[in-house]
Amino acid sequence: MTSTYRTTNTPGSVPGPRRRPPVPKVADIVRAVTADEPKVRITAYDGSSIGPADSPITLHVATERGLSYVLTAPGDLGLARAYVSGDLEVQGVHPGDPYDALHTLADGLHLRMPAPAEALRLARGLGWERLRPPPPPPQESTPGWKRALAGLGLRHAKGRDAEAIHHHYDVSNRFYEMVLGPSMTYTCAVYRSESDTLEQAQANKYDLVAGKLALKPGQRLLDVGCGWGGMVRHAAREYGVRALGVTLSKQQALWAQAAIEREGLSHLAEVRYLDYRDAPLEHFDAVSSIGLTEHIGLRNYPQYFRALRDRLKYGGRLLNHCITRAHSRTSRKPDAFIDRYVFPDGELAAPGRLVTEAHDAALEVQHEENLRLHYALTLTGWNRNLVENWDDCVAEVGLGTARVWGLYMAGSRLAFERNEIQLHQILATKTTKDGVSSYPLRPDWTA
Fold first, then answer.
1. What are the two backbone dihedrals, phi and then psi, of residue 440, each rounded to the nearest 5 degrees?
2. What is the pLDDT at residue 35?
């Protein structure tokens, strides 16, 4: 092996110019940071490749910028930046549903930290300019500390929560119509069997929630974090309930109120653009929270459960439905891709934490169940809709944003399947001081 430095041997002479080490190929870099030969094919703009030639999935690093994204943000964030920007191509799958690629990568690409000397040699060969982070794609939100400096306040301040909701939910109502389907429901459905359609499963979910809450004609329901008003409209239409929904997304509130009027439900249903903390203090017969808890922050759980309790009549029921951590030991904060591209400031708790907080807010927990695999099926349906409407979705929101949604939904599906995250429903009552809960000896709803 020849020396990478050229010097003269004459005593007292000035050393010759230092020669830069050979520029490593992308395949060399992959080889240095993987524990064994990848089971997926990886090719690059420099003509190098690694991995089995017959792999059904190929990752193609198309540009030097793509390599810089990956090198300057190791892990999921760098890969996501390169993919969203088009600098990393995933061949063998549709961009609206890259599930098969993620599944293959989860089992077939095991990363390791290279030895310091090896890392230094690669860095010198690449040139330090290659290790300067390129500007991120426009779909990326700023990190949390920048959100605070931008005047949005501390994590889960009202203004900052409103901005986080705007980032995710105000993408385009038309886009969500194509991805979510007619129900416009962006939460876990309930499948009686895998042959159920997505629409049937979403109706099943609303019926399950209504049953757990024992909804009856004439009762009042508060639905916090109501989205496009799916639960509000279902409760009014199918159960004769007077329902109020609140959401921090202006676009959702406008769409939901128009749907209420279109369906002739204005005498029973209403959706307001409102923080749940500002919802009316009237005593409701039931409160549903379907997919809100992920956004409010763990430190706000005591306030959150007290706020919902204070809006319930004695004997009233609360149904809390949210994504949870599979283990208390894992981080409550999502990975960098989810935080920057999907749910800024989102936080997940283990189900035991939710039960404890509801209990400590003087709510009596009556029932709990895990719907983890139902969410995997739900996400499969959303990815399918995105693929079927791909061209129209790209025309509506742009290629980069459509790639973000395909990636995050497929990745979430894999996480639910592998029990990395879960979905729990917790049913509680506002029980009187002398122990009257109005809850029967056995559940009065059908699973």
1. -70, 170
2. 85
